[in-house]
Amino acid sequence: MPVDVQPDRVVLKHPKGASAEILFYGATVISWKSGSSANPEAAERLFVSSKAAFDGSKPVRGGIPVVFPCFGAPTHPEHSKLSQHGFARSEKWILENIVMDNEAGVSVRFALEPTATIQAKFERPFHLSYVVTLAEHQLSTALHVKNTALSSTSPLEFQALLHNYIRAPSNEVLVSPLQALSYYDKTEATEELRSTPKVETRASVDVKTFTDSVYENARGKYEIAWPSGTLEVRAHNFKDVVVWNPQKEAGSKIGDMEDGGWERYICVEPGYVRGFVKLDAGQTWIGQQALTVLN
Ligand code: TA6
Description:
Elements (H helix, E strand, L loop, with lengths): L2 E3 L3 E5 L5 E5 L5 E6 L8 E2 L21 E2 L26 E8 L3 E8 L3 H4 L7 E8 L3 E9 L9 E7 L2 E3 L6 E3 L5 E4 L5 H4 L3 E2 L5 E2 L4 E6 L4 E6 L2 E8 L3 E6 L1 H5 L13 E15 L4 E10 L2
Antiparallel strand pairs: 1-2, 2-3, 3-4, 4-5, 6-11, 7-8, 8-9, 9-10, 10-22, 11-21, 12-21, 13-16, 13-18, 14-15, 14-17, 17-20, 18-19, 19-22, 20-21
The structure holds 6-O-phosphono-beta-D-tagatofuranose (TA6).
6-O-phosphono-beta-D-tagatofuranose binds next to strand 20 and strand 21.
């Protein structure tokens, strides 16, 4: 049974052993198990804190939270009533359709439209679809944002990001290529320093210390490597990428972070987070990523 629809989630199973679980809450992928051509045994590829809530009481601490329409604390006037990272990750989505294709795998499409709760804090009309596709060694997710306004109102302006918690030893994992990119270091002590761009000089970036870096106009293809594994992230229409690990310094202050959880993941997050996407009435924007297990 490639698709199992349960009350709170959808479970996808690939005939060659891979699987994925997506909560209706936030359309949050909370599990992706996959092997590789070299090691066919399916293993969990995402990190979810053992203290994460799945009941809708708070955004899931782990997996792949969907960030929309703002990244971080809101800065756009139309987002002023929203909480950090927007509402998409903390609203209940519906299952829009299921597409099974034995060659490419299995896809499920979730949808989110304005509810009264959302409209109370975000007045713009929109339709979100989120397509999750499971293949033998790959998980891809695509966020479709449609501006459903009928007239030629001002464009819908938003940010979007896929907040991947990749399971990996944070004291050994490296991300590349980020060298020569301009980035903003959110660990800096002052707003002035956090707003001052730096240039990445390292060929490979580690997260052995508290890291919260927003890379601008990145390359859209990232290799995440550690001694026993390699995962590739390819992104389309997500011009930026965030690399985050709080380490104990910041991780120990996160209420739903399991003890030492920061040792077991790296966040590599394709996004459009510097500036805003401007979407005219009737237009659709698609941001897409593909996570592939290489080893
Ligand atoms: O993507 C990195 C980041 O913006 C960090 O600054 C940190 O806040 C992280 O997201 C987690 O945010 P959350 O709201 O899920 O606690």
